[in-house]
C-alpha cells in the first residue's frame, strides 16, 4: 500500500503531501481543481512518461515521491535482490523532472533506470483511467488474471521450476556443443602447436640457464685469460700472494716467540693463507672446465633461438608457454568425455520437455474451466455496473512448433512453444454493445469502461494481494443512480482486501469512504495553486451535499448527505 505521496512544483501544485490510509480512499473536488493531476503524478512513480512542460512555471524541476509499505510483498523483496537494491519494509520511489527535459528516478535513494522503475510499479499499483499503467490493457497480464481466479499457483510454480530447469539444461548443452565445435575446428591447429612445443620441450626457467651458459662460452677466451692472471697473482706466479703471506707468517711466528700477544695475529694470517689456497684451488677447478667448445656453443645458440621463438608465439615467458601447452592438452582431452556428457544432457532435456508438457496441459485444462466460470461472473457484475448486454470471452490457444529450441516443450508427442507460464496464450475479448462481435479488450474499452471492467474482474477474482493498491480515475464516467450505488458497493467490498484510491463525482461513492480527501484550487500571489487535504466527518457531510446539489448547499442537501452516509454505515 502507499503510505504517503509528496508532490512539488508539478503543474499547478506547489507543494502537497498526502497521507493515504488502508481501505477506500476517496478524492473529490470541483472540475478543474486538479484531481487528475494527483493521479498523473502517481503515474510518474510507476514509470509513465514525463513531460517537461508539466514543471511548474519558475521552478527548475518537479519532484514526486511516494512511500510504499512492502512488508508483505514478497515479489518486491525478490526484485530488490535482482536489482541489487538494499531491501527494506518501505519502498521510497522518487521521480525528478527537470525543466530542461531530463528525468531522474530513485528507489530507496539508489538511482535506477525508467525500465527498473516500471518493474517495481508493476508489482505495486494498478492505475485505471486515462493512463498507460493499466494491466488490463496489456495482453501479457491476462493470463495472470485467469490464474488468480483459477487459484492454481502451486501448479504454475511446479511448472515454472521445471521450465527453468529445462532452459538451464538447454543452455548447458548449447555451451558444450559450442565448445566441442570450437575445439574440433581448432584441433589440427592445436595439435600442430602442441607438437611444436613438445618437440622443443621447454623446462621452467631454462632460457635463463641457457643464456648464462651461452654467455660463458662466448667469452671463454677472455675468461681463461682473466683466470690465469688471478691464479698467477694468488698462487702460481713467480711472486704470488700465497708465497708472500707464508713469508709474513714466518716473520710473525718468530716475533711471537718474543711476545706471545702476537699469537692472535699469527692465527689470523694462517686463516688468510688457507683462504687464498682454497680460492686458488677453486679457480683451478673452474679453469679445467672452462674451455672453448664451438660445437656446444652452436647448440646453445640454437636452443636459445628455439626457446625465444616459443616465448614470442605463446605468451612471452616459458611459464606461459608451458601453461598454454597444458591448456591444449586439456582442450584436446575434453572430447574423451564430452560425448557422454552430451548424451546425458539430451536425455535430461527430453525428460524435462515431457514433464513441462504434462504440467502445462494440466494447467491449461484448469484455465479453460476457470475461463468459462469467470466469464459468466464478470458479465453479471458488468451488467450490475451499467455495462449491460456485454459479452466477455477468454480466448486461450497454444502454438505448435517444429523447432526444437530452448523454449520448446512436448505433450502427446507434439512440440509446443513454451513460456514460463505454460504453453497457453490468453487474451480477454469483450463486446459492450449488443450485436457487436467481441474484440480484444484494449481496442474497444473507453477509460470509464476499463475501470469498471477492471472492478468487475477484481470483484470476481480471488482478491489476491498481487497488486495491493488499485487507483481509479474515471470509474464513474456515465454512471448515476442505482448503478452508482452498486459501483460503490463493489468498491467498498474490494477495499476489504486492497487499498483503493478513487476519484469520484458521485455522492453514492463518496459516502462510502474510509478516508476522504478534497482537492481545492486557490489563487495565491497572483497564481493558481491546487492543494489536497483530508476532511473530517463534518466537512464530509458538506462535501457530499455539494456533490448532491452543487455549490448552493441547502438544508435539504445536507440532510440527504447525512442520510446517505448513515445508510452507508448501516449497510457496512
Fold and architecture overview:
The chain is of the alpha+beta class and 572 residues long. The chain has 3 domains: 1-124 and 467-533, Rossmann fold; 153-447, no CATH class; 536-572, no CATH class. Helix content is 55%, strand content 18%. It has helices spanning 35-45, 74-82, 114-122, 142-150, 153-200, 206-218, 220-236, 241-258, 263-289, 294-314, 318-384, 441-444, 447-460, 481-494, 507-510, 537-549, 555-571; strands spanning 2-10, 13-19, 24-29, 61-69, 90-98, 103-107, 110-112, 125-128, 391-398, 408-411, 414-417, 424-431, 439-440, 469-472, 499-503, 515-524, 527-534. The strands form 4 sheets. Strands 2-1-4-5-6-7 form a 6-stranded antiparallel sheet. A 6-stranded mixed sheet has the order 8-14-15-3-16-17. A 3-stranded antiparallel sheet has the order 9-12-13. The radius of gyration is 44 Å and the shape is elongated. The two termini are 22 Å apart. The mean pLDDT is 85.
Compact summary:
This protein is of the alpha+beta class.
Strand content: 15-25%
- Biggest β-sheet strands, sense, barrel: 6 strands, antiparallel
Number of helical regions: 17
Radius of gyration: 44 Å
Give the tally of β-strands: 17
* Shape designation: elongated
Number of domains: 3
* pLDDT < 50 stretches: none
Q: Round the mean pLDDT to the nearest integer and report it.
A: 85
Main sheet strand line-up = 2-1-4-5-6-7
Structural class by helix and strand composition: alpha+beta
Amino acid at each position: 500500500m502507499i503510505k504517503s505521496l509528496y508532490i512539488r512544483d508539478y503543474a499547478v501544485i506547489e507543494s502537497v503531501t498526502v497521507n493515504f490510509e488502508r481501505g477506500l480512499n476517496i478524492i473529490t473536488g470541483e472540475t478543474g481543481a486538479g484531481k487528475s493531476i494527483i493521479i498523473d503524478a502517481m503515474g510518474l512513480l510507476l514509470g509513465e512518461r514525463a513531460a517537461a512542460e508539466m514543471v511548474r512555471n519558475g521552478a527548475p524541476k518537479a519532484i514526486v515521491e511516494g512511500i510504499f509499505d512492502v512488508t508483505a510483498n514478497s515479489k518486491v523483496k525478490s526484485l530488490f535482490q535482482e536489482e541489487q537494491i538494499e531491501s527494506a519494509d518501505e519502498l521510497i520511489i522518487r521521480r525528478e523532472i527537470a525543466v530542461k527535459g531530463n528525468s531522474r528516478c530513485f528507489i530507496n535513494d539508489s538511482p535506477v533506470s525508467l525500465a527498473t522503475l516500471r518493474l517495481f510499479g508493476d508489482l505495486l499499483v494498478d492505475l485505471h483511467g486515462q493512463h498507460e499503467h493499466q494491466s488490463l490493457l496489456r495482453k501479457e497480464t491476462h493470463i495472470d488474471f485467469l490464474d488468480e481466479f483459477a487459484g492454481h499457483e502451486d501448479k504454475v510454480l511446479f511448472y515454472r521450476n521445471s521450465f527453468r530447469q529445462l532452459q538451464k539444461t538447454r543452455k548447458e548443452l548449447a555451451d558444450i556443443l559450442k565448445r566441442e565445435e570450437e575445439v574440433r575446428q581448432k584441433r589440427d591447429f592445436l595439435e600442430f602447436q602442441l607438437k611444436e612445443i613438445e618437440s622443443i620441450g621447454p623446462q621452467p626457467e631454462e632460457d635463463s640457464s641457457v643464456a648464462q651458459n651461452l654467455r660463458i662460452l662466448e667469452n671463454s677466451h677472455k675468461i681463461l685469460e682473466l683466470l690465469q692472471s688471478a691464479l698467477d697473482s694468488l698462487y702460481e706466479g713467480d711472486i704470488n700472494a700465497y708465497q708472500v703471506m707464508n713469508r709474513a707468517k714466518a716473520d710473525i711466528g718468530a716475533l711471537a716467540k718474543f711476545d706471545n700477544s702476537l699469537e692472535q695475529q699469527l692465527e689470523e694470517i694462517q686463516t688468510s693463507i688457507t683462504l687464498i689456497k682454497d680460492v686458488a684451488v677453486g679457480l683451478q677447478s673452474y679453469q679445467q672446465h672452462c674451455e672453448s667448445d664451438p660445437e656446444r656453443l652452436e647448440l646453445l645458440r640454437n636452443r636459445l633461438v628455439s626457446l625465444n621463438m616459443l616465448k614470442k608465439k605463446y605468451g612471452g615467458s616459458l611459464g606461459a608457454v608451458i601453461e598454454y601447452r597444458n591448456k591444449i592438452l586439456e582442450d584436446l582431452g575434453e572430447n574423451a568425455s564430452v560425448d557422454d556428457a552430451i548424451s546425458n544432457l539430451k536425455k535430461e532435456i527430453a525428460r524435462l520437455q515431457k514433464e513441462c508438457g504434462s504440467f502445462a496441459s494440466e494447467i491449461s485444462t484448469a484455465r479453460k474451466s476457470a475461463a468459462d466460470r469467470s466469464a459468466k461472473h464478470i458479465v453479471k457484475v458488468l451488467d450490475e455496473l451499467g455495462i449491460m448486454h456485454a459479452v466477455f470471452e477468454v480466448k486461450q490457444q497454444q502454438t505448435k512448433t517444429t523447432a526444437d529450441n530452448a523454449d520448446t516443450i512436448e505433450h502427446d508427442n507434439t512440440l509446443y512453444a513454451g513460456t514460463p507460464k505454460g504453453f497457453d496464450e490468453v487474451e480477454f475479448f469483450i463486446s459492450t454493445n449488443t450485436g457487436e462481435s467481441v474484440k480484444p479488450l484494449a481496442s474497444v474499452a473507453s477509460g470509464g469502461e476499463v475501470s469498471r471492467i477492471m472492478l468487475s474482474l477484481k470483484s470476481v477474482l480471488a482478491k489476491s494481494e498481487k497488486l495491493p493498491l488499485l487507483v481509479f480515475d474515471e470509474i464513474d464516467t456515465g454512471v448515476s443512480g442505482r448503478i452508482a450505488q452498486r459501483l460503490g458497493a463493489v468498491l467498498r467490498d474490494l477495499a476489504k482486501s486492497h487499498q483503493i484510491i478513487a476519484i469520484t463525482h458521485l455522492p453514492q461513492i463518496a459516502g462510502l469512504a474510509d478516508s476522504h480527501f478534497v482537492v481545492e484550487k486557490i489563487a495565491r500571489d497572483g497564481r493558481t495553486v491546487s492543494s489536497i487535504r483530508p476532511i473530517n466527518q463534518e466537512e464530509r457531510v458538506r462535501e457530499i451535499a455539494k456533490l448532491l446539489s452543487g455549490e448552493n448547499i441547502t438544508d435539504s442537501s445536507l440532510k440527504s448527505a447525512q442520510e446517505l452516509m448513515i445508510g452507508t454505515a448501516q449497510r457496512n
